[in-house]
Every structure is written in C-alpha cells, then in structure tokens.
Amino acid sequence: MHPLLRMTMQRLALGLLTLFAISLFIFLAIELLPGDLTEEILGQSATPETVAAFRRELGLDQPAHLRYLDWLGGALMGDFGTSLANGREIGELLAARFGNTLFLAAYAAAISVPLALSLGLLAALYRGSWFDRFVNVATLSSISFPEYFVAYILLLFLSVKWGLFPSIADFGSGADLGTMLYRTFLPALTLVLVVTAHMMRMTRAAIINLLAQPYIEMARLKGASPARVILRHALPNALSPIINVVALNLAYLITGVVIVEVVFVFPGLGQLMVDSVAKRDIPVVQAACLIFAGIYILLNLAADLLAIATNPRLMHRK
Amino acid sequence: MTLTDIKTAPPTAWFGIVVIALYILVALFAPLIAPFGETEIVGMEFEPWGGAYPLGTDNLGRDVVSRLIWGTRNSLGIALATTALAFGAGATLGLLAAVTGGWVDQILSRLVDMLIAIPALLFALLLLSIYGTGIVNLVIVIAVIEATRVFRLARAVAMDVVVMDYVEAARLRGEGRGWLMRREILPNAAAPLIAEFGLRFCFVFLAISALSFLGLGIQPPTADLGSMVRDNAALITFGDITPLLPAAAIALLTVSINFVVDWVLHRASGLKD
C-alpha cells in the first residue's frame, strides 16, 4: 500500500476514535449531574407524575448505555432527537444554521489565510524594520483583544458612523451571493482581524526559525537574493508548521464564530448554541457540540495529512 | 529577575508593568475609589456623559465609572482564583504523573488528550448548559479546562527533571512521592510554569468575560466587565461608545500582560534581535 494512503487510514481511524471518545464524554457529562436532569429542569416542586412523564419522554427510564447507543445511532443518521425548548427536530434546526456558519467561516478564511501568509513572509523578510515592529505590536494587541471588542469597534465605525455596512448580518433565504457577501461583511472582517494576527505571527516565527539554519547561510553566501532565500529555500521547509497553524486557526474560526454571531445577530450554529445553553436545552447543545467537535477533528486531520504530504521526511519515520 | 533587568526592559514591557500595577491598585482599593456602590441605582437609565456621572449611567441607571471599577475588581479576582485553581490541580496532577509513571500517567494523559480535543469554548458551553450558570460553576468549569493545558506543560517539564541523578538519589534515600514532587521537581520546573501563569491568566480572563458577555458567566447584579458590554450594547447603534469602555478595559489588561510575558519569554530564551 502507498505509505501516504496507509498514513491516511491510520489518521482517519485515530480521528474516529477521538470523535467516539468525545461523543462518550458529551453524553456522560449529563450522567455526572448530581440527582437528575428532570429535577434540574422541572424544579423541586414538580409533581411525581410530571417527573415520570418527563423521564419517559426523554428516555431517562432506560439504562445509560442503551440511551447512549440510541443517541449515537440516531446522530449518525442525522437524527438528534427533539429540542426540549420547542419540541422541533434538532436535525432540521441545525441543518440551515450549520450552512450559514460554514459560509461565514469560509468567507473569513478565504480572506485571512492569504493575507496572513503574505504579511508573515514580509515581516520575516524585513525582520527588525519598522514594518516588522509595527506588525508585531499590532498583532500582539489584536490577539489580546476580545472578539466582541473588535466587533463593536467595526460596528461603530463602518455601520453606525459611516453607514457602509448593515449592523445585523441576517439575510433571507433567497439572497444571491453578492448580497450575502455584503450583508455578512462585518462579521467576516471581525473574524479575519482576529485570526490573521495569530497566523501571521506563527508564519513569521516559523520562517525566522529556519533562517538560522546552515543551508540558508549557504544560500546567502552564494549570493541569492533575500526574496529567493525566503521563497525557494526557507518556505518549503516552513510549510508544515504553517499548515498546522492555518488548520488550528480555521478550527478556532469555527468556535470564535460563536461570539461574532451573537454580536451581529447572525443566524448560525453558534447563536443557536448560546440560546440553547441559556434555556438549558441540553439535547441541542450536545448535537451542536458533536458537530463542532467533528469539524475540529477533521481540520486537524487534514492538517496532519497535508503536513506529511509536503514533508516527505515525515513519511519514512524510523 | 533583578532591578537592573527591569530597567533595561523595552518600552512595551514598561507600559505593561505600569498598566498591570494600576489595575491591581484599582482592584484592591475599589471600595475607596468608586464614587458609588456596585449595584446602587443613582439616576435615570442611559444618562449622558458629564456632570455627577462622568461616563453616564447604564441600562438600570447605575454609575458607569463605579461599575467599571467594581467590575475590574470582580473580573480580576474571579479570573485570578480560577487560574490559581487550574494551576493547583493541573501542576499537582502533572507532577504526579511524571513521578509515578506507569498506569497513573497513562490514564491521566489519555484523559487530558481527550479533553483537549474539545475546543475550550464549546466544552465550557456544554458543561454550563448541564450544570447551570453561576460563579461557582463558571470557576470550576474554566479551571478544569485550563488545568488540562497546565497538566500538559507541568508533565512535560517534570519529565525532563525526573530523570536527573538527584531525583534518583532522593528516591534511593527513600523519600516519599510528596517530597519528590515538592522539594526535588517543583523548584526546577517553576520557571516555565510561572511564565505560563501569565498567559493562562489572560486566557481565563478572556474566557470568563466572553462567557459573561454571552450572558452565561457572571450573573447580574454583580458588576463584571464582560456583562457590562452586553448590558449597554444597545447604545452602540446610537454612536455612543460607552459599551466599548469595559471591552477596552479587558483588552488593555490582556495586551499589557502579553507585552510583559513576551519580554520575559524573550529574555529567558536568550534570543536577542
């Protein structure tokens, strides 16, 4: 078997195992609740009849392992049960919002990845210059800013003061791509600002790390231009750490989206999750968690494989 | 770190040190500085800046300046307690795993691997939806999440120390596990752990204020920087920057801590530009 293919299978199996462990955790976290979910939700004053009916409805009268298998089996088929708050099918509830969240994350990624990589390269190339220092301070600051701070500043200027973009990123179902891109520009820009800083710093660090290597010294001594040294000699070897950072930040986008969605009232998975936590609609939170965790693992898996594919040395590890 | 080290610090680190000191002073002396009480309603809702209320009043008619001061005190205190709890648990278990090895190490490490695979914010949301929101739950949930990260670092650092001859000598002397962890390993693993404390504090501070901003963290009427942003968010659509102030207070502190940690790490790694 081709080594890359074998590696893919191994990683895929490992990813599935992790996802399985997480699903077990998501499910079992409820079991650790002192007492019972029913008491927590219905309160102390509920009559025994209501409690019994509620328990039957949730299937709480069955043993935990049967409920887990039932839940997992359903989740694999896209059936997450019904919401406690409004009795709707969770699968239906999630489907539309999941698409919106993916759209927003992809929008932000499409801008931030190229931007971060080129800024990182430039900062490494002009290391120690005023440009590098400025970028360093600016990115360190924006990493430490809470997302909602960035979001409200953008909202204040771009939407309230200058009226360029709408402050509520809600688009109807029939909107075309241009309208969608326009209406979601502010949340996307917030995410771009937040993740670009991190990716850029790591890109710069990865390249600068390599610049201390003897073969870079060699390339310099034989008279290669600084741009050539970085692009042809340093970059290929820096690819695998950079890919890892990009994947890590894309995974971060998926969760960072929660706060941005709340600020801009965007109808995505994150907002649904926050609403459900406030209402203690646990089945919805579990389902959303499982989906987020799945994407997170998938992204890490993709990063691992890409890093191996771009660095043949990792394939023949002794 | 000596006084001369601090004198040679770059301006960013200086800025950070001064700001952190100011925050600590405000947090400690909040009852003396704040013109009004934490939950005292002093006027109408959303009064403009100026007069008796330099930054106006909030959505319930409480003085914004006082709320900012009390909020700084509460947010800092809760974040500090959480970080301390996370370090206590994470570092103890990390050292224990390194000293004991074997199945204890295996079980703890695999458990932490699994918990780290879940993104922190999601993990917090899941646990808060199950156990309910409130300060105690919030502190425990965030501390558990951060403890997994501290465990990783503590175990990795301690693993390097465990193989040293003096640890072996102490073992042969018949010292107990507690002694090995406290007297032999901890002093030699302290430096990276202390630098990590600053960074972890930032994460905790940001996580708690993010959850409070979402309405799932510190509950009213307790003043807290994150929930202050949420309470006054409506003002932003009228071009009023009051809701940005608590957010800016959070950002300023985390930026300052990052500046200082950046400088300390830079110095410790011996890198000179």
Tell me what you see in this structure.
- The complex is a heterodimer of chains A (318) and B (273).
- Chain A is mainly alpha-helical and 318 residues long.
- Chain A is built from 13 helices and no strands.
- The longest helix of chain A is centred in the C-terminal third of the chain and has 38 residues.
- The model of chain A has no long low-confidence stretch (mean pLDDT 81).
- Chain B has 273 residues and is mainly α.
- Chain B is elongated, with a radius of gyration of 22 Å.
- Classes of the chains: A mainly alpha (318), B mainly alpha (273).
- Chains A and B meet through helix 1, helix 6, helix 7, helix 11 and helix 12 of A and helix 6, helix 9 and helix 11 of B.
Query: What general form of chain B does the structure show?
Result: elongated
Structural class of chain A: mainly alpha
As a percent range, the share of helical residues of chain A equals over 70%
Low-confidence stretches of chain A: none
Order of helices and strands of chain B: HHHHHHHHHHH
Considering residues with a beta carbon less than 8 A from a beta carbon on another chain, report the largest interface and each chain's count: A-B, 53 and 47 residues
Instruction: Give the count of helical stretches of chain A.
Output: 13
For the termini of chain A, the CA-CA separation is: 18 Å
Helical content of chain B (DSSP H or I, runs of 4+): over 70%
Q: Note the run of SSEs of chain A as H and E.
A: HHHHHHHHHHHHH
Which runs of chain B of at least 5 residues are low in confidence (pLDDT < 50)?
A: none
User: Percent of residues of chain A in beta strands?
Assistant: under 5%
Radius of gyration of chain A: 24 Å
Structural class of chain B: mainly alpha
What integer is the average pLDDT of chain A?
A: 81
